[in-house]
Amino acid sequence: MSLFGGIYENESRNIEMLAAACAVGVGCCFAAPIGGVLFSIEVTSTFFAVRNYWRGFFAATFSAFIFRVLAVWNRDEETITALFKTRFRLDFPFDLQELPAFAVIGIASGFGGALFVYLNRLIVQFIRKQKAINRFLMKKRLLYPALVTLLVSTLTFPPGFGQFMAGKLTQKESLVTLLDNRTWAKQGIAEEFDYIGHSAAWKHPQVNVFVTLVLFIVMKFWMSALATTIPVPCGAFMPVFVIGAAFGRLVGESMAAWFPDGIHTDGTIYPIVPGGYAVVGAAALSGAVTHTVSTAVIVFELTGQISHILPVMIAVILANAVAQSLQPSLYDSIIRIKKLPYLPELGWGHHEKYNIRVEDIMIRDVRYITLNCCYRDLHNVLLTGHLKTLALVESIESMILLGSIERAQLQALLSMQLGRSRRLEFIRERAMEEKKRLSVVSNLGSEDCTQRASQEVRFQISTEESSFSPTRTVPQKPLKPALKRPSVVERPTEIPTSPNDNSGIALKDLFCASPDTEGPEKNNNVESPVSPELRRPSKRVRISIVEPPTILKSYFVDDVEVEDDMTIREIAEWEERQLDEQVNFTNCKIDPAPFQLVERTSLHKTHTIFSLLGLDHAYVTSIGRLIGVVSLKELRKAIEGSVTVKGVKVRPPLASFRDSGTSSSENEATELHKLWDRHKSLSLPREQTPSESDEKSQ
């Protein structure tokens, strides 16, 4: 949109807009603006700008408000309330003896979240490894979603296998029944099933509620992992949320079966509330899959009750601790699958990684352009690479970094140099030069036209008489100019000129050099149709030369519009001449201060700078000279352990992501580091003696 075009030009603003958009999405989906803002911060940012905090709250609050107002307007709700209201008791929501059960839910949810992420990635990798299947699915893009949809719908068909897993309930209806505070079973017997409304879907005459919940969890688990792999915009948060609620409900029903009379405390009996366990399980499993703690706040806003805040926080923290130690989050896994640039966490311990420097991981073959380069060099650089930005150096000898230029700016410069507008300007200038040359030739010819004028010039004779004297116009043919003016532009056709369009040259300028007055009559061979009676002596006679206007093919010299009449060969020759010209960077937007690192910067500092500023690359300089570039790819390889220095291998914090073929040996240390090892006695690194060319450039 043109209204927000300036916002998206700044890369730092893109992250802020992404965080606000994520907050709006979660706020609308769950009517949870506070949880949505916190969730967006955890998912989209490593270092969050506080100035964007109120913007996220502003957008999420109004989006959630409008979402709930529309529900009231459509008469789905009587007023603005929580999306899934619960009615847990507030005086004694849970007993202290139930905390171990909540902790078990958190630990089990951590393992379940890691398993869900692993299963999702395993399915995608399996499909990609099957080359024949992958090529077939690439041609038939709708076939894979159709097959997955057919499989899921067949297994959940209510009259079929779906009757054992509450298949006739929608996702919303399933969540409403799972959060119900009434106990479904007593001693786990199906005949004593206590159900009202949608809860009847969980009842089956042949199996009890525990079998139904187990089948629901298992089937929904792998079907959700499979469904999230289809190339269709869908969310994985809500299915995982429902699965977690079902797991918590299973634990709650088990606790209700083990303690049918409730837990005795000070002579008072408090029955088990399975709905509270469902809330804890939903928050724990969704937090384990996404590696977020804000799911606890989302659950509180979703249910409208904060009575189980302590069990929810304990379960979410334990689930995150287990899941983060085993697998990355679902979003990081998708980034890894799609091979997008990302920056993994540096991790704790393993101080050997601090010995790695930027010089050990940087790329030395840097693509750059010089300040005095020509358009041909610019053209070759753009063809050989696909970098978004290119470094601008002073010269090849000095390599002093002056700034960076975006690829779009360089393409615009090249387009302006070889574009049609510049070619038309060249044609216009060429035509103007031709016109000036023709005028000079005409002036020289008017001074020296003694014999040539009598042979080649045709005259127009006009008499000035009184207004009542009859005159007859003589029909004329197109007359030739006094001098044959050669022209670069070919004139295949000439426009016949009328007497009113003829330009005359006075007899005083030309006739004095032509004493022979019979010459023009013989050369013209024009017979006058006027009778002798009508001829009268004229008072004044004016003889002039008819000179046709200069005719240019398909364009006008004095006008702005110029038509391109150059042949393909002429255009190719003209482009070759244009490519040899020096580039003019006057109208180009140059970043005079790109992000730079020195070659001895540690890996820890580099990781902090990249994370804090959201960089994707940085130039490596030595006393202002460009010597390399480091990007997210090189930084990721160094963190994951594919770079070794001094025989010490860095252990990656994300061991599950490291490929077996990416490890390297000690020989991969750079030559610059070996040179540094030779000078261990020196406290500071010293630069080599600059060459004569460097001294001249400086």
UniProtKB/TrEMBL annotation:
Annotated membrane topology is: Multi-pass membrane protein
User: Which locations, inside or outside the cell, does it occupy?
Assistant: Membrane
Q: What is its main location?
A: membrane
**GO terms, molecular function:** voltage-gated chloride channel activity
Highest taxon in the source lineage: Eukaryota
Query: Which CDD domains does the UniProt record give?
Result: ClC_1_like (cd03683)
From the record, give the transmembrane residue ranges.
18-41, 53-73, 99-121, 142-161, 209-230, 237-259
Q: Where is this region: Disordered?
A: 464-533, 656-698
In what ranges is there compositional bias, type Basic and acidic residues?
670-680
- Which intervals carry biased composition (Polar residues)? 464-474
> Which InterPro entries does the record match to this protein?
CBS_dom_sf, Cl-channel_core, Cl_channel_volt-gated, ClC
GO cellular component, as recorded: chloride channel complex; plasma membrane
Q: What is this protein called?
A: Chloride channel protein
Question: What is the scientific name of the source organism?
Answer: Champsocephalus gunnari
